[in-house]
Amino acid sequence: MLELYNGPLNVEKIFSSWQEWQREKNFGAFITFVGTVRDENNIEALSFDLYEPILKSWFKEWQERANQKNAFLKMAHSIGDVPVHSSSFMAGVFSPKRRVALSLIDEFVEDFKANAPIWKYDVINKKRVYAKDRSQRLKGSGILGDKSDKF
Hints:
Aldehyde Oxidoreductase, domain 3, globular
């Protein structure tokens, strides 16, 4: 399940709803990752844009991978501004066994950072500045794509 929210995530509320879902499904392992905006480089916030059709497709592929291992994924991400010390990203892996969940959360979060169609901006003096130095090229995204793209 992919959940998108305007502004910062309400981590406690999302975690609680995911935990209740986990109990209902009787999974033995529930592993979460929460990404928090750090106070660095004089930023007030980070701001996020995303391309929902590609994000949904990317997430669906991951859900299918998880399902092959008898696991399930949930993800929540922010759209727009997320102030320092607030959260913009949550991922959860649910599995009958801990080993599967531990392995899957690591793979999922690393691939998210490298391949999810989400663009990050620093907010400094209330202005959005594209965080090019911390951005990844996305395969298949034309002029923004990686150099291995074939035209």
